[in-house]
Amino acid sequence: KLVHTSTIPKGVKRIKAIWSFRRKRDPQGVLLKHKARLCCHGGMQVHGQNYWETYSPVVNALTVKLLLVIAKMHGLESQAIDFVLAFPQSDLEETIYMDLPIGFEPKGGQRGDYALLLLRNLYGLKQASHNWFQMLKNGLISRKFVPSKIDPCLYLKKNMMILTYVDDCIIVGRSKEEIKKFIHSMQNGPEKFILTDEGD
Question: By CB count within 10 A, which of 19, 32, 128, 188 is most buried?
């Protein structure tokens, strides 16, 4: 949200905006697309002022291998999904102001007179990964999945297991229909997750 700098409380530090540019290539090295992402300079954040929690777990490689072995041994169906721009899908609880990124010029004023009040969780924020993990976890728990006591990135439910790795998931279940029903609930539930089907 665009705000005038005069409305920002005194003593509140603005963080800088950073553009991240990337070329995405296929395994053979052929250029697929150019990507641009607006990020925050998380190094400018102050602990206790505009972030607190930062921890988010990452799946253990042994859990991934074990899940795939179990799926193969029992002839279970599998599906991979990828959340599109995952971090901005989750809310931001803290009040954070960011300088306007290079290339943005406000109408009727100088660039330095304005800032952005962040309403969404952007890449680069120290708490970005934590916020996203909490949203995904809450979404899975609300669908009756239970986190594993051994690996917090593995979620279990009767006839289905889900493995999370930041913004990717491997879903293993007894039938394709159950998996499709779950994916549909993620896309059309209260969170309205935006995701792509990555196939088996």
Answer: 128
Contact 77, 175 (CB under 8 A): yes
The DSSP symbol for 143 reads T
Digit-coded pLDDT (tens) for 176-192: 999 999 999 999 999 99
How far apart CA 169 and CA 21 sit, in angstroms, is 25
Q: Are 132 and 87 in contact (CB under 8 A)?
A: yes
**CA 61 to chain centroid:** 20
Single-letter amino acid, residue 18? I
- The contacts of residue 140 (CB under 8 Å, 6+ apart) are 147, 155, 162, 164
Pair 125, 44: CB distance under 8 Å: no
pTM of the model: 0.89
Tokens matching residue 135: 């949203």
In this structure, are residues 91 and 120 in contact, taking their beta carbons and an 8 Å threshold?
yes
Neighbouring C-alpha atoms within 13 Å toward the C-beta of 26: 4
Is residue 53 a contact partner of residue 130, using CB atoms and an 8 Å limit?
Answer: yes
